[in-house]
Every structure is written in C-alpha cells, then in structure tokens.
Amino acid sequence: MQPNPSENAVGAWVQLVRSGQTILARVEADLKDQGYPPLEWYDVLLELDKSPDGKLPQAQVQSNVLLAQYNLCRLVDRLEREELVKRQPSPDDGRSNHLVITEKGRTLRREMWPAYAAAIQTHLGSRLSCEEAHQLGGLLGRLVQAEPAECDAKNR
Amino acid sequence: MQPNPSENAVGAWVQLVRSGQTILARVEADLKDQGYPPLEWYDVLLELDKSPDGKLPQAQVQSNVLLAQYNLCRLVDRLEREELVKRQPSPDDGRSNHLVITEKGRTLRREMWPAYAAAIQTHLGSRLSCEEAHQLGGLLGRLVQAEPAECDAKNR
DNA sequence: CTGTTATACATGCAATTGCAATCAATTTAC
DNA sequence: GTAAATTGATTGCAATTGCATGTATAACAG
C-alpha cells in the first residue's frame, strides 16, 4: 500500500467531507424550515416503521443508525417524550428493551417523507444525472466496508 | 426537473451521509488516538499557515471553513487558549480582527499532517483506485455549487 | 451630517454531545 | 455452579453547539 494518499485521494477526501456536511446541512435546513425535526429522528422512526410489527430492540436500531449508544439512548428519551415511540421491556432478555413506534410516530414519519424527498431532489438529485447518482452511490458504498485492520491492496 | 428524486439519487444520498460521517469519524478517531485535536483545528491552522504571512481576517477564515460564525469564534477562543493562534485587531477595520498563527500553531499543523495523510490513505485512498478517487471527487464537487440563495452552509 | 442598515465579532442560555462510569442481566470459562 | 467477562442500557458531568441577541464599527441613503 502506498504510504501516502494520492493527490486524488486527498481531493476526494476534501470533497467528501465538504459535500457531505454541506448537503446534509442544506437538507436539514429545508426540513427544519417546514417545522420538522432533525433527520436522526426520521432515521429511527423509519427503522421501526419498516419493521413488520413496528418494533425492534434498541440495540438493533442502534446498529442501523449512525449514533453512539448513549446518544441513541437520549434520542429515544426525546422521542418518547413526544410520544413517537415507546420503550417496552424485552421478554427474552432482561437487559434489552424494544422500541415500538406509535401511531403518532408513523404519521410524522409519513408526513416528513415528501419534504425530505424534495430536499434530496433539490440538493442532490437535480445536480446529477441518474447514472452519475448511481455511480456516486457505488463509489461511496465501497468506502464503508468493514474496517480491514491493516490494508495491503496495492492501489489498483 | 423531476418532482421526486430518482431511486439512484436517494441511494447516493444515503451513501453520502453514511460514508461521509463514517469515514470522518474513522479519520478523526485515528488522529485522536495519536493525541491530536479535532480536524477543525487543523482546518483553521492550515488556512492561516498557507496564507503568506500566517495571518487572515477571521471572517475570511470563516468563509473557508465549515463552521457557523459563533462556532468559529469559540474555536478561536480555544486555539488562542492553547497559544496556537493570536487575535489581533485589524488596522483598517475596527470591527474585524486578524488571526495570526503562532510558531506553536505551525508546528502542530505540520506534525499533524503525516497522521492525517495516513488516515486518509487507510480509510479512503486504499479503497479506491486513483481514477475512482478522481471520479468521486469530481462528482462530489458538483454537489456544492452555489445554492440559489438560502441556507447557511458555507461553500468554496 | 443623521438616521438606517449591514457587517464582524462576541456572549448568555438552553440543548446536545462525548466521556467515563454505573447498573443489571446474560454469557463464558473454569 | 460460580467467578469473571460481556452486553444493553443509562446517567453525571464537562465540553460543545445552536439560537437569539448584544456591541461596536462601517457603509449607505437622504
């Protein structure tokens, strides 16, 4: 493996951080303007809403969401306070709890989607062709594969 | 323009947020393990270090960095406390101040780079070919072109 | 000039995050 | 079976962030 990143890798890095943060901020700002909560709320609600009975162990939600354990814990506090989800003791593991989405939670999730989709279209979709978007998704997907401990792979 | 984002756009969006945050977290973690401060510190120090006399108006630093005005202000508080930069009243504009990088600041910046570069290589460079990195940078760059007025997020 | 608006920076306060425990219920190893 | 390690969740406290506002200077309109 090259000891130093190529110029292209550094360039991609810079753009990745910059675009990631900028676009995320823009999309979140759009949602916020319309009175909606932060995207993490959506992420959690979506996970639960997708699940067959609207219920998942907190640990599993956590693994699908980009949050530290204690941050999810506190996010759930907030969601629970707004009655969007409920905590429910797990029958088969005394440490764990299930998160259950409420009707109110499902409704909010459903109502947010059009605004969210529109923001994605405005800030990302409208700036790339369909193939470009596909390509971008593919390249980015390669970056988050499990940590390869010590990577050898001669630059291909 | 399509009213709704294509599936590809949504996919790219998801990967963008996920990869952006994940890779950023990994790189920052590597730096932190080696006792270095967060990347924003690096960003500010680099801006100043690049500048001919190590000095820039705070407002200009701000426009090159992804931080809200009040957050830069407080970051500068911290940098100043560590004696990495100094605030200096601007001679030609009584509202403004110049940020000046200190020797200690230059040293830290210089010492951080190898660790930073290695982290970029590990988490990004080693996972993409040179052309792929180039392509990725190009696609991402297209996303942050100036917005039709609105939004806080900084560009350029 | 003088009043209005805009710019550069700072700050009080509330909300959120990160860190380092802590607690309780498993699981594992002997 | 029991001690030790692990896992899932939580919490106190300090640091950081967001928001609204404050202060001072500069630019502009009349």
How many helical elements of chain A?
6
> Helix fraction of chain A?
55-70%
Structural class determined from secondary elements of chain A: mainly alpha
- What is the string of SSEs of chain A from the N terminus onward? HHEHHEEHH
**Rg from alpha-carbon coordinates of chain A:** 19 Å
Major pleated sheet of chain A: 3 strands, antiparallel
User: Most extensive interface, residues per chain?
Assistant: A-B, 60 and 61 residues
Low-pLDDT windows of residues of chain A: 148-156
Number of strands of chain A: 3
Strand content of chain A: 5-15%
> Quaternary state, please?
homodimer
The strand line-up of the biggest sheet of chain A is 1-3-2
Separation, N- and C-terminal Cα atoms of chain A: 10 Å
- Average residue pLDDT of chain A: 90
Using the alpha-carbon principal axes, give the shape of chain A. Answer: globular
Task: Give a verbal description of the structure.
The structure is a homodimer of 156-residue chains. With 156 residues, chain A is mostly helical. Chain A contains six helices and three strands. Chain A has helices at 7-33, 39-50, 58-63, 69-81, 103-123, 130-143, and strands at 55-57, 85-89, 97-101. Chain A has a three-stranded antiparallel β-sheet. The longest helix of chain A has 27 residues, at 7-33. The first copy, chain A, is globular. At the A-B interface, helix 1, helix 5 and helix 6 of A face helix 1, helix 5 and helix 6 of B. Chain A binds a DNA duplex (30 and 30 nucleotides) through residues 57-59, 62, 68-75, 77, 90, 93-97.
